[in-house]
Every structure is written in C-alpha cells, then in structure tokens.
Hints:
This protein has 70 residues and is an alpha+beta fold. The protein contains six helices and three strands, in the order αβαααββαα. It has helices spanning 2-9, 17-24, 28-32, 34-41, 56-60, 62-69, and strands at residues 15-16, 45-47, 51-54. Strands 1-3-2 form a three-stranded antiparallel β-sheet. Strand 2 (45-47) and strand 3 (51-54) form a beta hairpin. It is globular and about 30 Å long.
Amino acid sequence: ARELVIFGLRKTRGIQFTDFTARTGYTLDQLYGDTLGWLCDIGMLTRDAGSIRLTESGLFLSDSVFAELV
C-alpha cells in the first residue's frame, strides 16, 4: 500500500481516495494519520474532497516528501 502512495503521488493527478481504498483496503488516514495533515500544512501536499497530490513546492521537493511517507 505504501508503494502505491509513492507511485500515485508521482502523477500530477495524485491519489484518488476511493481508488486507493478499493485497491488496498486501507484509507490514507489509516496509514499515515497526522503526517498527511502536516505535509498539507507546510505546503507540500494539497487535499480536496476526493484526492491528494503534490503541490508545486512538493513536486520540487518530492524526495523529501516521499521520505516522510516511507
């Protein structure tokens, strides 16, 4: 499931919550808890009702973002 997160965030579309849960049986919040919120707060990720993706800053620093998610 964690590998799917890294590969999903490499796409500009990001990760669709329903697709991720259907494929893995987990929600992103179950796997990462407060880490996703923190990454959104510092501007590395953006989250809407259906997905999460890297911001422009997150794309530039994606290796650091991925390190937080491994």
